Amino acid sequence: MSPWPPTPAIFSHYSTPLLMNKVQLGSSDLRVTPVCLGTMTFGEQVDEATAHAILDRSLARGVNFLDTAEMYAVPARAETFGATETIIGNWLARHPGVRQQLVLATKVAGPSRGMPWIREGSGLSAQDIQASCDASLKRLQTDVIDLYQIHWPERSVPAFGALYYDPAKERSATSLHEQLEALGRLVTQGKVRHIGLSNETPYGVHEFVRLAGEHGLPRVATVQNPYCLVNRTVENGLDETMHRLGVSLLAYSPLGFGLLTGKYDASGFEGADAPKEGRIAKYESMRKQRWGRPEALAAARRYNQLARDHGLSPTQLALAFCYTKWQVASTIIGVTSVAQLDEDLDAYGTTLAPEVLIEIDKIRWEARDPAL
User: Fold this and answer.
1) Which residues, other chains included, contact 184 with Cβ-Cβ below 8 Å and sequence gap of 6+?
2) pLDDT > 70: what percent of the chain?
3) Which residues form the NADP-dependent oxidoreductase domain (predicted)?
């Protein structure tokens, strides 16, 4: 394991633009690196010792932004519910003084979505939000969460692969006002500094911002939504909403659950040569989601070949796309090893030639957003 605390030699060896480049999240006072360490693999694909090594290296390389959630690890199971927060909490406890260097984000899960070990029913009540926050604080072994996000809306919205909004499926039990008031109480209690949303729509962002202004409640700082070469739906209107309202985008799954690394190009997801530790190959439940669609793999193969044709790795192309887009404040990377972390961070600073960007848009015009 790396020496602790990180020595000046470690910092100089891993000097990157990340150390000098912080971005403000919305109108909050949170300033974060443009790359965020996502942690949903901790506790399932990644054991605690490896997770701590990844956290050590991430901090040594200058990343000051960690994102997690109460429902992690992924794939979600009752046995690993809360495991990721617990692993992070144990790491923080081992390294006194590190907490104040970090911006720590976590999420309260929305309605059950088939996970009754989180909560029963279709609601996200004020009591749910309070109880989840208190439990996250305990697991994380911290007194305050810097950015507390609603993981997915209580409303029925087109997310996680759903294409259309269907009013007939609306079962909302808690108004946005009540949810925002509950988040506001957490801020007043000193348990949360700022709030955010995830997997949200333009309507939801507008309403949360409007209600905050009308009722003197905390203003949403961020929205965490998928954004990558095979899912650019953020650009179908949400980007304008966020730009005009001063809300920052946290882009998740920039590598499309591994599709955009090239690891599945030759073998697909289920062949004999499929990478055994890849999430989509390893977990059948992942293959049934948007990232496991044949159309998503077909599009990813085209982007990956475009990268190779221009002397880039698929990972470099996919991450550089997110790292350099005006819509993105910080890109959330998820890794299973220190080597993957270094590869993803080393891609920061890569620029894409104008002709490459033109080719990217040509592929999107033909393939659209197959992993929406």
Assistant:
1) 217, 218
2) 89
3) 35-363
pLDDT in tens, 66-114: 999 999 999 999 999 999 999 999 999 999 899 999 999 999 998 877 7
Cβ(170)–Cβ(156) below 8 Å: yes
29: DSSP letter: S
283 is annotated as an active-site residue: no
Reading the block at residue 309, the tokens are 């044709």
Are the CB atoms for 303 and 297 separated by under 8 Å?
no
Domains of the chain, by residue range, sit at 8-258+325-349
pLDDT single digits (tens) 167-198? 998 888 899 999 999 999 999 999 999 999 99
56-92: b (≥16 Cβ within 10 Å) or e: bbbbbbbbbbbbbbbbbbbebeeebbbbbbbbbbebb
The model's pTM: 0.93
Q: List the CATH code of the domain at 8-258+325-349.
A: 3.20.20.100
| Residue of 14, 72, 148, 303 with catalytic role | 72
Quote the percentage of the chain above a pLDDT of 90. Answer: 79
Angle at the Cα of 71 from the Cα atoms of 300 and 157, rounded to 5 degrees: 65
Measured CA angle at 133 (ends 338, 175), to 5 deg: 120
Of the candidates 67, 361, 74, the residue with the CA atom closest to the CA atom of residue 232: 361
